[in-house]
Amino acid sequence: MKLPRTYYNYISYLGTIIAAIAWLTLIFFVIQINFFHINNVYFDLYTFVVTPAFLVLGHVLIPIGMYRTRKKLKKGIPISDEKLLVLNLRDPKTRNAILIFSTVSIFFVISTIVGSYKAFHYTESVEFCGKLCHKVMQPEFVAYQNSPHAKVKCAECHVGEGADFYVKSKMSGMRQVFKYTLGTYIRPIATPIENLRPARETCEKCHWPQKFYTNALRKEKYYLADSANTEWDITLNMKIGANHQALGLTEGIHWHINPDINIEYKSNVKRNIIYWVKKTNKKTGETTIFKDSEIDMKSIDKSKSEARSMDCMDCHNRPSHEFRSPSRYVNDLMAAKVNISSIPWFKAAAMDALKTSYSTSDSASSEIKNKILNYYKDNYTEFYKKYNQQIISAINEVKAVYARNAFPEMKVDYSVYPRHIGHLESNGCFRCHNDKFKSEKGKLISKDCNLCHTIVAQGKLNDMKYIGINGSLEFTHPVDIGDAWKESNCMDCHSEIYK
Ligand code: HEC
Ligand code: HEC
Ligand code: HEC
Ligand code: HEC
Ligand code: HEC
Ligand code: HEC
Q1: Ligand 5 atom 13, closest CA
Q2: How far apart are CA 204 and CA 319, in angstroms?
Q3: Ligand 6 near 478 CB (within 6 A)
Q4: 475, 458 in Cβ contact below 8 A?
Q5: Does the C-beta of 432 come closer than 6 Å to ligand 5?
Q6: Mean pLDDT lowest among 24-33, 278-287, 314-323
Q7: Burial class, 396, CB count within 10 angstroms (exposed 0-12 / middle 13-18 / buried 19+)
Q8: 235, 455 in Cβ contact below 8 A?
Q9: 85, 255, 294, 384: least buried by Cβ within 10 Å?
């Protein structure tokens, strides 16, 4: 077999070897994928990204070598015959040369593959996502560590499977690194993430609609802002699934993700104000459109008015990094520590300190301390003296839970990233379920207090009212506000009280 004279040079030889190995590897991977049905992102990455890169490299090196030799030949530089590839395997020198050369090449190719595998693995890791851009991702990273998904990698929700999304996410990642370096990113980081992968391709890899969830009891403890920090408990029976599991997704909260149903909605960009809802029964083709006629359309950004199909993330929008409100994390703290809930007026004192927004973590830390101490000095000197040690250690606990839920440098707290499940501090379910959306036939999207849950126990700790698991108590608001809780949305007061 004769090749052009210019081919015989070391660069082209190297190119040939790399290309040959890459071809073999590629064939190997393609066989694996097609015959053994391997469906793995790393395999995809090798087959479609890493190996072709080597293939290209090899094929580029060959002409480069040939071009250089041609230039030499043109200039009249003689090419010594030694550079001709004469493979005389009887010659021990040639044998050694081939051995050394192939060992080095194979080592080189393998170590590059392993290296890129490691690099790939690293860019998918929680450390990379959460720590590399430490300042920017800190709020999400900290909240994530205390979440039910603390063992699920960021990339499993944010990137998902497949080489195409990997590349896409790294491209947008580059842009983010650039903005990070220049410091031009917006604080807080914008949410919702518009091009987040649909839940079908992320959440539903681990959870899926066909898996029926039964009803669940939810026990909440609240502490009122009075001298005794009176404990008020509410137990809700959440109707997540149908009343009987044989009914599947035909009723209950997860009815929205019944594969035969499609709920679409139009909203402002932040998705906290919804003004149009369409329900489609995919089996019968029947559609119903609900409109909220009272909504102030001026508050809605018209530039974004295409409809969005509801999926898991329209309710579970904070599955992993949830920022809780001060009243919630102080309630939790008091529920966990008796020596805090036994300090008179502590709930009120803590709320007084936490209703302000602070500009830095340091000022928050010192101000929370000053404010709580001053609250006692100004109002309850007798308790200030009597409970001094307890108050000081309680302050440290408050500072610690604050630091897990509010990040002044990134301008992040619960009000910036509201959670769409429930309806206390943000409208959540009441974005649609508010008795204001009407269909043409006059049907409402119901706000009935027993639609989504029933209250099976409520009241002051030592004076609770109970009903059997199939019954429901009418809600009693923990402090007397008359019928205000029926007439306005809970959020109208609850996002004001502590803010
Ligand atoms: C269980 C799934 C899940 C995991 C795990 C997860 N996220 Fe998220 N993340 C989401 C969802 C859902 C949103 C909000 C999407 C929306 O509303 O469009 C989001 C939003 C964000 C945002 C935008 C700002 C915000 O808070 O809304 C950032 C930044 C972010 N995530 C970073 C991270 C980092 C860093 C990690 C890992 C330490 C992580 N996420 C882990 C699901 C997840
Ligand atoms: C890699 C697998 C995985 C992915 C992807 C995932 N989850 Fe989870 N999820 C889990 C595990 C594991 C748990 C914890 C189960 C437990 O505690 O029993 C969980 C728990 C939950 C819970 C219950 C939380 C609680 O308070 O107990 C909800 C709700 C949830 N996930 C929603 C989501 C949503 C929404 C997404 C997509 C944005 C998602 N998950 C993506 C694995 C996953
Ligand atoms: C985008 C609008 C929208 C949001 C947000 C929304 N829903 Fe719905 N929901 C609907 C529509 C539309 C119906 C069907 C109304 C009808 O046909 O009567 C419905 C029906 C229901 C039903 C009755 C299902 C049945 O037939 O048994 C429950 C329960 C429910 N929703 C719970 C919730 C909960 C809990 C939340 C918040 C976590 C929520 N919804 C958020 C639009 C919404
Ligand atoms: C209409 C709003 C809505 C949608 C859409 C929705 N969920 Fe839920 N889901 C809820 C509510 C409300 C609860 C009960 C939460 C509670 O008890 O506070 C819940 C509970 C859960 C739980 C915990 C079950 C348990 O027994 O504790 C999981 C897991 C879950 N959802 C996963 C999903 C997944 C996955 C999807 C998408 C396929 C999804 N949800 C879609 C509203 C929704
Ligand atoms: C469309 C569904 C829906 C309707 C209608 C609804 N709720 Fe709820 N409610 C929820 C969900 C979901 C939660 C759970 C929130 C969570 O998981 O933190 C909740 C939580 C609560 C809680 C516990 C408060 C908290 O968040 O800690 C109370 C009390 C409550 N609801 C009372 C009511 C009353 C009173 C009404 C009638 C005016 C009502 N709900 C109507 C869905 C609904
Ligand atoms: C008119 C204003 C107003 C409305 C509307 C309202 N609340 Fe309240 N709520 C209050 C006040 C004031 C408190 C007392 C705060 C305290 O003592 O710490 C309170 C306390 C509570 C508490 C105890 C909270 C805690 O953390 O200590 C719960 C639970 C509660 N409300 C639930 C609801 C629900 C559910 C709704 C809607 C169905 C609602 N509220 C509507 C004003 C309101």
Answers
A1: 422
A2: 13
A3: yes
A4: yes
A5: no
A6: 24-33
A7: exposed
A8: yes
A9: 294
